[in-house]
Write the structure tokens for this entry.
Amino acid sequence: MAILFRSTPAATARWQPLLAELMPEHEFRFWPEVGDPANIEYAMVWQPPPGLLASLPSLRLICGLGAGIDHLLRDPDLPRHIPITRLVDPYMTDAMSEYVALSVLRLHRQDLDYLAQQRAQSWEEREQKNACERPVGILGFGTLGQDAGRKLKALGFPVAGWSRTAKEVAGFVTYAGGDGLDALLARSEILVCLLPLTTATEGILNAGLFARLPRGAALVNAGRGGHLVEADLIPALDSGQLSGAVLDVFREEPLPKGHPFWSHPRIIVTPHIAAETHPPTAAAIIGDAIRRFAKGEPVANLVDLATGY
Ligand code: NDP
Ligand code: OXD
């Protein structure tokens, strides 16, 4: 029995020594050295080439190396009968909340304007609200959204969350479904997207949605690039409907040189680093899932292919 590991070359180099240390009972094959595919029962993967998973006849469990699994569902040959786990790692959750808190604070404290003023050597005080006067809406109120919400709330922001299914989360206003979205947007001066990318959420950040936010609202997208209709963002910023955007994810990554997002004065770009997979903690979590699965015990964080996350 062997485990196939496939990620980027840089990530593979970080994972390799940890896997030997934390999962010594397993034989690992590091893509593209697959060896005999017939004895691979488990796959630990990030963006596997299409068809790779279908070529493993003994595969029993697919362990995604990220929280999102849209990279797996893009494979037309994905063996859909094989269970998939996604990564839920408190270390990553903390990292995402740091990113969201930083981004929301930058937008709230008018950093884009003060940076422009610094470049112009212009000493000008701007009127500033406190966090308690700046409602934040979080699209995707799951593992990451709720943790970010708790940390924003601790900073004083009134936070509301939007999810697919209705839920009660102590201390938060929550909304669900299409009607709930209108209500959340109407109150959100800063909108944070932490949704999974699915057929239902693709392109959700578009001109129609921006128009339903209060004028001058700002956007943080740390979900997926596919959530944003890129052509709609700059017109919304240039018209003043949106006042700023912090973007960590893009339809094409790396964001191509010359893309207008790089140089727009009201956009902050980061290179998909909001919450990177952290091999030491992730290896322990995935190792535990594989051990439980092998013993026939229930495994956490299984993906539901019907909803796509
Ligand atoms: P979860 O599955 O825990 O949460 C997803 C949330 O989105 C849930 O609240 C879910 O609703 C909601 N949701 C899903 N579909 C819809 C819909 N159609 N309408 C309304 N709400 C919807 O995922 P995580 O919080 O762990 O991760 C979220 C995403 O964050 C990942 O899929 C990934 O794309 C992104 N991510 C980005 C990273 C980065 O570095 N930029 C790092 C890690 C993750 P419900 O509660 O009803 O199920
Ligand atoms: C993830 C990511 O989904 O890093 O984990 O984007």
Observations:
- The chain has a mean pLDDT of 98.
- Residues 90-269 form a domain with the Rossmann fold fold (CATH 3.40.50.720).
- The pocket of oxalic acid (ligand 2) is lined by residues 66-68, 275-277 (CB under 6 Å).
